[in-house]
Specification:
This protein is an alpha+beta fold. 38% of the residues lie in helices and 30% in strands.
Length: 301
């Protein structure tokens, strides 16, 4: 099943639901970063959450930046997701592995530890909107739902899942259900929705059972005037890094540092944190950067 995002509404537009399947892009991230089991689950959940949050933005080019900064051995998570369906991300310690938690599942909470969740929404102009909340459990889903309620005042239920087997990621994705202001005063509706989401056995078991996103929506909201949008959006792991951008970053270091790289290393090598791609610049290319800096300095002077 292709990685995709599908939207729906229910309760006469009072409920907004978004579902994502992110199996392939999570597997790509696992391979790119050589992630352990628990690191794969942590990054996969956060990428799905980022895509779900970005889906509510309106302006083309809008993106959400999600940073999970905890005191656990994972050493943090950073994800960048766009309204266009692209996502990228990495963890601080990709090789960390922990024993299963008390429920026999991957101990993402233990890997993340205690700390904070930082969210930055960039709509493409003006100052990005940023907010910070304390981590509730480190399991990502609880933490993002807490952010949505406390920072955006939107009652939200979030289910995220990543199943990693011996052959890699076989199921990943998530479901976000939000009660919009027009229905938030209906306490019975909110309670019913909360109980139904809580009754879910998780998200990946549904995918492994062969359920599609429309079928998951129907099971959850089928008796609440459910309307599923016919358009599905393709999702993919994508990083906009390039050799030219790498050269631009090196240029910022200045003449002295560039000259030092030429003398000591006969060039430079840089690895993109987001996608793991390695770029190499020769000593001649570094020398050209120095010439460019000198030219710019003489012009501005």
């Amino acid at each position: 099943m292709a990685d995709q995002l599908i939207r729906a509404t229910a309760a006469d537009g009072g409920i907004r639901a978004v579902g994502v399947i992110t199996t392939r892009l999570t597997e790509e991230a696992r391979q790119r970063h050589k992630l352990s089991y628990v690191a794969t689950a942590a990054l996969g959940r956060t990428m799905a959450a980022g895509l779900l949050m970005a889906s509510s933005m309106k302006r083309p080019g809008s993106r959400v930046n999600v940073r999970v900064k905890g005191d656990g051995p994972l050493s943090g998570i950073l994800v960048d997701a766009g309204l266009d369906g692209t996502v990228r991300g990495y963890v601080g310690n990709p090789s960390i592995e922990l024993p299963p938690n008390a429920k026999g599942k991957l101990d993402v909470g233990g890997a993340v530890g205690k700390g904070f969740l930082y969210v930055v929404r960039d709509i493409g102009y003006g100052y990005p909107y940023s907010s910070t909340v304390e981590l509730v459990s480190g399991e990502i889903g609880d933490d993002v739902a807490h952010y949505l309620v406390s920072s955006e005042q939107t009652p939200s239920a979030l289910v995220l899942g990543v199943f990693v087997g011996a052959n890699g990621v076989t199921a990943a994705g998530g479901l976000l259900v939000q009660v919009l202001p027009k229905a938030a005063r209906d306490e019975a509706l909110v309670a019913t929705l909360e109980s139904r989401v809580a009754a879910l056995s998780g998200f990946t078991p549904l995918l492994q059972a062969g359920k599609t996103l429309p079928e998951i929506f129907t099971d959850l909201l089928g008796d609440m005037d459910l309307k599923i949008f016919p358009e599905s959006q393709i999702l993919r792991f994508h990083c906009g890094c390039s050799f030219d951008r790498m050269l631009g970053a090196l240029k910022i270091l200045g003449e002295a540092e560039l000259q030092d790289m030429i003398v000591k290393d006969d060039g430079a090598e840089a690895t993109c944190d987001f996608c793991g791609r390695v770029y190499q610049a020769s000593s001649d290319q570094l020398a050209q950067l120095i010439v460019d800096l000198q030219t710019e300095s003489s012009v501005s002077g």
